[in-house]
Automatic annotation (TrEMBL):
The keyword Ribonucleoprotein does not apply. Residues 81-219 form the L,D-TPase catalytic domain. It comes from Rhizobium loti (Mesorhizobium loti). One of its GO terms (cellular component) is extracellular region. Keywords: Cell shape, Cell wall biogenesis/degradation, Glycosyltransferase, Hydrolase, Peptidoglycan synthesis, Transferase. This is L,D-TPase catalytic domain-containing protein. Pathway: Cell wall biogenesis; peptidoglycan biosynthesis.
Length: 227
C-alpha cells in the first residue's frame, strides 16, 4: 500500500464528531476469514486481566480477512511512530522503521462530513474511557442520545470499547478518537459518527505501542467520480 499525503493538510470544521452507530449484525460474512490460522486465533483471542470482558473475535462470521492486523510494506513519508488513517481504504497504519508499518482495519464516519482530516496529536490515552455524546449527536437524535448527555462509564456497553486515543489540534480536543468497538462486524465499513474504530484487540495493541504526544494523520476522503 502506497500512501501519498502531498497537499492534503486541509482544515475542516470540527463538528458532528461522535462514536456511536445503529449498525446491525450481518447474517453472513462477505469473505470467509482464516479461522484455522493459529496466528490470528491467538491475536484475536479473549484478552485476560481486564476489568471488563474483552471477548474473542469470531473471525468466521464478522471480519473480512484483509482488515486483520498485519505488518506490511509502507512507502509513505511520515516518520516512524506516526499513526496514519486512510478512511478511503479503511486502514490505520502505525509507521515503523525501514519502510514497514503495522496495518489495522478500521470503521470510519458514515458520511464524509463526519470525518476528521489532517494532522493531530494523540494528547491523551485512556483505558476503559467514559463516553459522552456530542451536542451534535444529541441534536440529531435526542430520543436516543438525550438520556446519555451526562455520559456513560467505561464498561462492556460503552461504544468506545477498552481503549481510546484522543486527537487534539492546536492544544484543543477535536472530539475525535481512535477507539475500540462493541460492534466488531462494522470494521471495514462507513459506520460511525466520525471517530475511527478498531477491533478491541487492535486498539489495545495500538494503545500499548504509541505514547501520548504521538503524531496522527487522517488522510482526506477522495471525491467520488461523477458519471
Amino acid at each position: 500500500m502506497t500512501l501519498n499525503r502531498r497537499g492534503f493538510l486541509i482544515a475542516t470544521p470540527l463538528v458532528l464528531a461522535g462514536c456511536a452507530t445503529n449498525a446491525t449484525v450481518p447474517l453472513l460474512p462477505a469473505t470467509a476469514p482464516p479461522t484455522a490460522d493459529p496466528h490470528y486465533l491467538s491475536m484475536y483471542a479473549a484478552v485476560p486481566g481486564e476489568p471488563f470482558p474483552v471477548d474473542a473475535i469470531d473471525l468466521s462470521r464478522i471480519v473480512d480477512p484483509k482488515y486483520l492486523r498485519r505488518e506490511v510494506a509502507y512507502a509513505g513519508s511520515e516518520r516512524p511512530g506516526t499513526v496514519v488513517v486512510d478512511p478511503n481504504e479503511k486502514f490505520a497504519y502505525l509507521v515503523l522503521e525501514q519502510g514497514r508499518a503495522i496495518r489495522y482495519g478500521v470503521g470510519v464516519g458514515k458520511v464524509e462530513s463526519f470525518n476528521f482530516q489532517g494532522e493531530a496529536v494523540i494528547a491523551w490515552k485512556q483505558k476503559w474511557p467514559r463516553w459522552t455524546p456530542t451536542q451534535d449527536m444529541i441534536g440529531r437524535d435526542p430520543e436516543r442520545y438525550g438520556p446519555l448527555r451526562n455520559g456513560l462509564a467505561g464498561g462492556p456497553r460503552n461504544p468506545l470499547g477498552p481503549r481510546a486515543l484522543y486527537l487534539h489540534r492546536n492544544g484543543r480536543d477535536t472530539l475525535y478518537r481512535l477507539h475500540g468497538t462493541i460492534e466488531p462486524w462494522t470494521i471495514g465499513t462507513k459506520v460511525s459518527s466520525g471517530c475511527i474504530r478498531l477491533l478491541n484487540q487492535d486498539i489495545i495493541d495500538l494503545y500499548d505501542r504509541v505514547p501520548e504526544g504521538s503524531k496522527a494523520v487522517v488522510l482526506p476522503i477522495k471525491s467520488q467520480a461523477v458519471a
